[in-house]
Amino acid sequence: MTSLDEAGVDEAPGRASGGPAGRVVVVINAKAGAARASDRADLVARIRDAVAAVGTLVDIQFVEPKAWTRTLTGFAERPDVDTVIVGGGDGSVSSAGQVFVGTGKAMGVIPLGTFNLFARSLAIPIGLDETLAALAGCVVRPVDVGVLVDETDRRWVFLHHVSLGFHPQFIEVREAMPYGSRIGKMLASLRVWLRTVRSLKQMSLAFSGDFEKPRARYYQAAVTVGSFREGFGDFPHAEDLTQGDLDLVLLPARGRMDFVMAALMAALGRWRSNSRLDVTAVRRVTIASRRPNLRISIDGELRRLPPPFRLSVDPKALIVLMPPKPEAREGEPAATAI
Fold first, then answer.
1. Rounded-to-integer distance, Cα 246 and Cα 225, Å
2. For the segment 92-144, what is each residue's pLDDT rounded down to a tens digit?
3. Residue 76 contacts by C-beta under 8 Å, 6 or more apart in sequence?
4. For a tag on the chain, would you pick the N or C end, based on fewer CB atoms within 10 A?
């Protein structure tokens, strides 16, 4: 772990006098690609300048993955820290959300991964220069998260999605392939997608709660925080994380060609308008299976968990640092900050 001990920052007053973010700690995943590729001294200087516009910098740390959760938990418990800005990919950001939800601390994001899905949902610009430049205009707001509870009552918070079926299978095969860069990961993803389609598997699932459906066969089931933005040219991410609901996205097993067409439409940014997907807004839903364990993706991290899975939305449970929403047009309610 590398710390900015020489920063010489005095203890700051409360959030109000320290800017919207108050007293800020920045924690960077030392193994994140963009962090490894940058000159560390230069990166520290740039982060220090960017944070000065929104709060009072207390510390910057570069943390190895094995110490990630422990380090964040320590900052969550410190009364002299108001905001923790985390730098990393989707897995690092999701695990940070697990730590900070419900603590009253604000979480900022410096997206340093391949897809950066939660950062996109917060409308944070992708690219280190763009992210740091946007930090000056960020405000503190609460957003929704999802909660998954398995048969043994173990609980996980998710920021973007939970998925079963094709997507976890795809991730498992891709992670076994070597790639050395962001572009390499994307190319590996394309090769794995084609390979996984050739061995397409089905699941038998039943649903209860806000969505009731008897047992049927699916290629994929996903639950997302908020509704994915419609439109071509971007990775799937939520349009708004403050609506207080989840989307249940189902791909029924109707044959390989139907799967391919559904995936192509999704790649074009068609989600709710995708006639091959069944999309329903829910606040809580239970997914049941006859299998003792299912492979599941929680924000891109793979686990094997025992069903049934009880999923629900926890409205405005996570405080984040994000760009302000655009001004509401006439007739629309204005956004409010906390």
1. 5
2. 999 999 999 999 999 999 999 888 999 999 999 999 999 999 999 999 999 99
3. 84, 99, 100, 103, 105
4. C
DSSP string, 239-295: S-S-SS-EEEEEEE---HHHHHHHHHHHHTT-STT-TTSEEEEESEEEEE-SSS-EE
Q: Which two tokens stand for residue 18?
A: 């320290």
CATH 3.40.50.10330 domain locations along the chain: 2-138
What confidence score (pLDDT) does residue 179 get? 63
Cα–Cα dist 209/66, whole Å: 37
Collect the ranges in the chain with pLDDT lower than 70: 1-19, 37, 176-188, 193, 233, 326-338
Encode pLDDT of 218-231 as tens digits.
Answer: 999 999 999 998 88
Distance, C-alpha 182 to centroid of its chain? 18
CATH of the domain spanning 2-138: 3.40.50.10330
Cis peptide upstream of residue 142 (ω within 30 degrees of 0): no
Tokens 């799967």, residue?
A: 259
Nearest C-alpha neighbor of 317 from the set 209, 157, 83, 161: 157
Residues 6+ apart with CB under 8 A from 306: 150, 151, 152, 292, 293, 294
**Is residue 318 helix, strand or coil?**
strand
Judge: domain 147-315, CATH 2.60.200.40.
yes
Q: How many residues does the chain have?
A: 338
Predicted confidence at residue 277, as pLDDT, reads 95
Q: What integer pLDDT is reported at residue 123 of this predicted model?
A: 95
Cα-to-chain-centroid distance, residue 56: 26
Other CB atoms closer than 10 Å to residue 241's CB: what's the count? 25
Contact 241, 158 (CB under 8 A): no
pTM of the model: 0.86
